[in-house]
Amino acid sequence: MTIDVFGLSITIPELFWTIVNLIILYFLLKKLLFKPLLEFVDARAARVQAGLDEGVKAEKTLKDTEQLMEDEVMKSNAEARSMIEQARAEASKENEAKLAEARKQSLEIREEIKCRIASEEADEKEKIDEKMVDFITLLSNRLLHSNEASGKEDLIKDCIDAAK
């Protein structure tokens, strides 16, 4: 017996075997393709999330460091003000030369602290830049699995430039 579907005549055994073949193909694809593909996508998503978490952690570290530097500057400014007030009190008791020396010392302390803060800030920014480059390189290598060698380098450079 034949069935006429959209102008095609199909016999019942052909329809039955076609359905059986489709079911077998579906289970084979599910076992051999879909499951590994979903595992790969999940693993990649976990790596991306770990990289993003590391970036957030680095950003938090930078903010904490900036806050510590700001607190240190405020403390240093308070110490400098205290030294200046002390020098002024002593200046009324002593001569003008001692007051000039105290001012000189407070300026040196401020400059030293400013240099230290600038150095620490540069170090933290360099660490973040290094981690960001590593992250972008890793992400680019994971996402791009093509055989075009010249395209990879250009894409990685574009990612690094975009991250800065």
Query: What fraction of the residues are assigned to beta strands by DSSP?
Result: under 5%
Order of helices and strands: EEHHH
Overall form: rod-shaped
Number of domains: 2
Q: End-to-end span in angstroms?
A: 71 Å
Overall residue-averaged pLDDT value: 83
Number of helices: 3
Count the beta strands: 2
Side by side, the strands of the main sheet go 1-2
Query: How much is the radius of gyration in Å?
Result: 34 Å
Structural notes for this entry:
The structure is a single chain. With 164 residues, this protein is mainly alpha-helical. The chain folds into 2 domains: 1-30; 48-163, no CATH class. Helix content is 88%, strand content 5%. The chain has helices spanning 12-93, 96-143, 149-163; strands at 2-5, 8-11. A two-stranded antiparallel sheet has the order 1-2. Helix 1 packs antiparallel against helix 2 (96-143) and helix 2 (96-143) packs antiparallel against helix 3 (149-163). The protein is rod-shaped. It starts with a strand and ends with a helix. The model has no long low-confidence stretch (mean pLDDT 83).
